[in-house]
């Protein structure tokens, strides 16, 4: 028995269905998010375990992890980001096309983690806007999958005009991005 | 574009290619700027430090047992080896002798960690040549090793396993059941993995002759571990400066000939079989020791039992002092090294008699042999450079510390 | 495996050859630590490499230590290993001054290249004769040397850490 996604609510009739465009596109987007695994340290190894057969990340539509930012939807930052790496992270984020989401996996990406030192960026939200934070050091694969499901919720419910709205432009301006 | 002078003073144009910090294969963050002529590499310049977390500075501010979680994150593919190496360094400073059963338990944990490190190294080498099946197949066994670690200490990857003087709790019968199950299943899996790669024509063509290094260059560069053994030198810290009762175990040291990628792959394969032999011998020896010993008698550094803390005054004081990190170590300098997954991992500890180290330096094998990488890939193709990097087993956490 | 050289024999050979340049020695936890004059470091390394009865031809580690209260405030520590004889030894060279300087060991061991860059990055010790002495782990624009004792652990430019919550 194959479980297909539930259709969004709408008016159905023989041969047609009228529903909200946002919901249809959200449904398509949420089940085909292509991640960019930006794995720097130990959380990257837990991500490899998540992608492997026991926890199987590709069940959720992320069959193709892309390493080119131009072709990815979801930036998964896994591991400590040092101050030397921050410009690289920012460049990768800016190269992604809208709509894009960011998930900060692990304590180091969320807030610097256990490394409160002069060389570690205390959280990637100092350089890029983040949608979901997954705590843990390293988080179990189930936690990473849970974070991904929250991103799927965000992608499914996002209005189509969000990326060109004033509020989003203000958010990007806070990070000095266009 | 830039120019290089060839031997007959002909100026040739080369392309600058950035093998940047964001890597397609999760090896870690380090950058190489290559000068290529077509596909041939003329020179390479590595840049590291993209994950510099200042472990050595951090260690100067933490009491001794709080440094164990930092050592986890050095070579995070085999964290128990780092943890136990650090504990042995502190025990050397405190002149503390651990009972035999603790030594054997430590050996089991360290060899399991070595197997899991080699699993990643070889299967990712397979992925870099395009063979994804080996990685997926072998990672299931890594989950079994994670299960065993979780049963012993509660964590999968960054284990913080053991305490100074032994282990935090005794091993229950689940641990031994899972170990026995692992020892039955794993050899079959590893044999199949070897069958996929060892005599595979495509894999051999990709890896034989790529990234070679001679034995004396390797020694001059400070290589240790599987990379040095692939070049032909049989130096293994477990045999030459044994620690934790390794001298009672029988195992061989696999050695290669040319120091190229294929030799490194085969040496690592051989080491997994030797580790399985050691684990089998260790489990037998553990069963012969009295089953309730799991730590040394060192009340000033090892937490007393909770029952005694509630009833006895000294135990209460020790408990308080240890938890608050107010235990002073004797002044002195000690250097201790263990055979990590990718080489000799050394801990140089200077203590001035206080509660934190005065200076702690990690002798990190990845940092030392990555210097030789430009020399190893010179004259090869770009695809050879990728395969060489992956066979060297460079872990970014250990590279930058 | 047992070593074929003892600490006394080693120290004897060293003092016979270098005399006053060997300042002191101590044997702790089984390993000999020799403190010597910093101008002779390359001569000592070359002698140990070439002497057939010693054959100390492997450099395990090179690092630095900062002792701010001492006059010669920086110490460069070499850990050497003779694989043939299974013998380990530690050398310490104290240097001081505004810009502490010592000769580079890259002429003897290729592995000293990055180890000296790391020591320069952390302490500001200049290694004369090093082919490419620049920062390796920290950002290139950094001016301070972080592992000196006066440098703070945490980032001094942070504005979001409230002292009240950290007990300060």
General description of the model:
Helices cover 34% and strands 15% of the residues of chain A. Chain A is built from six helices and six strands. Chain A has a four-stranded parallel sheet with strand order 3-4-5-6. Chain A has a two-stranded antiparallel ribbon with strand order 1-2. In chain A, strand 3, helix 2 and strand 4 (74-78) form a beta-alpha-beta unit. Chain A is globular, with a radius of gyration of 17 Å. The N and C termini of chain A lie far apart (47 Å). The model of chain A has no long low-confidence stretch (mean pLDDT 89). Chain B contains 17 helices and seven strands. Chain B is of the alpha+beta class. Chain B has helices spanning 55-59, 68-72, 79-94, 100-128, 132-153, 173-197, 201-207, 215-220, 226-230, 237-240, 261-288, 306-311, 313-324, 365-370, 373-377, 382-391, 396-400, and strands at residues 2-5, 11-19, 31-37, 40-47, 332-339, 344-351, 359-363. Chain B is 49% helix and 12% strand. By secondary structure, chain C is α/β, with parallel strands linked by helices. Helix content of chain C is 20%, strand content 27%. Chain C contains three helices and seven strands, in the order H-E-E-H-E-E-E-E-H-E. Chain C has helices at residues 7-18, 41-50, 112-123, and strands at residues 22-28, 31-36, 58-66, 74-82, 87-95, 101-103, 126-128. In chain C, strand 4 (74-82) and strand 5 (87-95) form a beta hairpin. The longest helix of chain C has 12 residues, at 7-18. The N and C termini of chain C lie far apart (53 Å). Chains in contact: A-B, A-C, B-C. The interface between B and C is large, with 42 and 36 residues.
Query: Can you write the helix and strand succession of chain B as a string?
Result: EEEEHHHHHHHHHHHHHEEEHHHH
End-to-end Cα distance of chain B? 34 Å
Provide the gyration radius of chain C in Å. Answer: 19 Å
Order of helices and strands of chain C: HEEHEEEEHE
Low-confidence stretches of chain C: none
The biggest beta sheet of chain B reads: 4 strands, antiparallel
Q: Which oligomerization state do the chains in this entry correspond to?
A: heterotrimer
Which word captures the global form of chain B? globular
Our estimate of the beta-strand percent of chain B is 5-15%
**What proportion of the residues of chain B is helical, as a percent range?**
40-55%
What is the overall pLDDT average of chain C?
Answer: 89
Name the chain pair whose interface involves the most residues.
Answer: B-C, 42 and 36 residues
Tell me the radius of gyration of chain B.
23 Å
Shape of chain C: elongated
Helix segment count of chain C? 3
Number of helices of chain B: 17
Q: Largest beta sheet of chain B: what is the strand line-up?
A: 1-2-3-4
Share of helical residues of chain C: 10-25%
Spatially, the strands of the biggest sheet of chain C line up as: 1-2-5-4-3
Q: State the end-to-end distance of chain C.
A: 53 Å
């Amino acid at each position: 028995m194959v479980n297909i996604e539930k259709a969004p609510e709408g008016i159905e009739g023989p041969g047609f269905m009228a529903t909200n465009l946002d919901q249809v596109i959200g449904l398509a987007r949420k089940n085909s998010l292509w991640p960019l695994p930006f794995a720097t340290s130990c959380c990257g190894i837990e991500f490899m375990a998540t992608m492997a057969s026991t926890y199987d990340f590709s069940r959720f539509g992320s069959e193709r992890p892309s390493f080119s930012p131009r072709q990815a939807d979801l930036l998964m930052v896994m591991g400590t980001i040092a101050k030397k790496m921050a410009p690289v992270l920012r460049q990768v984020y800016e190269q992604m096309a809208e709509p894009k989401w960011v998930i900060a996996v692990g304590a180091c990406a969320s807030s610097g983690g256990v490394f409160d030192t002069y060389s570690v960026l205390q959280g990637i939200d100092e350089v890029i806007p983040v949608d979901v934070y997954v705590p843990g050091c390293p988080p179990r694969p189930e936690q990473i999958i849970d974070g991904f499901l929250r991103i799927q919720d965000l992608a499914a419910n996002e209005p189509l005009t969000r990326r060109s709205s004033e509020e989003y432009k203000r958010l990007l301006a806070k990070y000095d991005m266009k | 574009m830039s120019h290089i002078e060839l031997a007959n003073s002909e100026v040739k144009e080369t392309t600058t290619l950035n093998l940047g910090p964001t890597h397609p294969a999760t090896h870690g963050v380090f950058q190489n700027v290559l000068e290529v002529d077509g596909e041939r590499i003329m020179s390479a310049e590595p840049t590291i430090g993209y994950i510099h977390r200042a472990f050595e500075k951090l260690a100067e501010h933490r009491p001794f047992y709080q440094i164990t979680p930092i050592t986890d994150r050095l070579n995070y593919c085999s964290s128990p080896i780092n943890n136990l190496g650090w504990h042995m360094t502190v025990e050397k400073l405190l002149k503390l002798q651990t009972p035999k059963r603790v030594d054997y338990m430590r050996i089991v944990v360290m060899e399991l960690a070595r197997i899991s490190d080699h699993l990643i190294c070889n299967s990712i080498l397979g992925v870099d040549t395009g063979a994804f099946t080996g990685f997926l197949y072998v990672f299931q066994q890594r989950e079994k090793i994670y299960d065993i670690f979780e049963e012993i200490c509660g964590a999968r990857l960054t284990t913080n396993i053991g305490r100074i003087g032994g282990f935090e709790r005794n091993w229950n019968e689940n641990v031994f059941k899972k170990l026995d199950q692992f020892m039955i299943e794993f050899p079959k899996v590893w044999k199949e993995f070897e069958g996929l790669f060892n005599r595979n024509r495509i894999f051999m063509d990709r890896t034989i002759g790529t990234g070679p290094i001679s034995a004396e260059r390797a020694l001059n560069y400070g290589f240790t571990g599987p990379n040095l053994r692939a070049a032909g030198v049989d130096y293994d810290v477990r045999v030459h400066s044994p620690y934790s009762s390794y001298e009672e175990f029988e195992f061989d040291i696999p050695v290669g000939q040319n120091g190229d990628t294929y030799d490194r792959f085969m040496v690592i394969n051989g080491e997994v079989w030797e580790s399985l032999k050691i684990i089998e011998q260790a489990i037998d020896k553990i069963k012969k020791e009295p089953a309730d010993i799991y730590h040394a008698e060192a009340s000033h550094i090892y937490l007393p039992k909770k029952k005694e803390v509630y009833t006895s005054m000294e135990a209460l004081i020790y408990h308080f002092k240890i938890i608050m990190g107010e235990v002073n170590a004797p002044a002195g300098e000690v250097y201790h090294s263990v055979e990590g997954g990718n080489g000799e991992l050394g801990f140089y500890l200077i203590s001035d008699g206080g509660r934190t180290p005065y200076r702690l330096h990690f002798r990190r094998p990845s940092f030392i042999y990555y210097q030789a990488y430009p020399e190893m890939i010179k004259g090869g193709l770009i695809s050879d450079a990728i395969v060489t990097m992956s066979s060297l087993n460079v872990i970014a956490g250990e590279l930058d510390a | 495996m047992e070593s074929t050289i003892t600490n006394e024999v080693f120290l004897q050979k060293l003092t016979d050859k270098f005399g006053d340049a060997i300042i002191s020695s101590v044997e702790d936890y089984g390993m000999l630590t020799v403190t010597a004059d910093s101008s002779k470091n390359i001569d000592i390394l070359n002698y140990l490499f070439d002497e057939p009865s010693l054959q100390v031809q492997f450099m395990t580690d090179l690092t630095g230590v900062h002792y701010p209260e001492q006059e010669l405030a920086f110490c460069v520590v070499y850990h050497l290993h003779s694989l043939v004889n299974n013998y380990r030894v530690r050398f310490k060279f104290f240097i001081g001054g505004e810009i502490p300087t010592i000769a580079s060991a890259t002429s003897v061991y290729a592995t000293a290249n990055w180890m000296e860059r790391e020591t320069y990055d952390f302490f500001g010790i200049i290694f004369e004769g090093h082919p490419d002495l620049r920062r390796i782990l920290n950002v290139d624009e950094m001016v301070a040397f972080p592992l000196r004792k006066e440098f703070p652990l945490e980032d001094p430019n942070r504005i979001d850490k409230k002292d009240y919550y950290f007990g300060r």
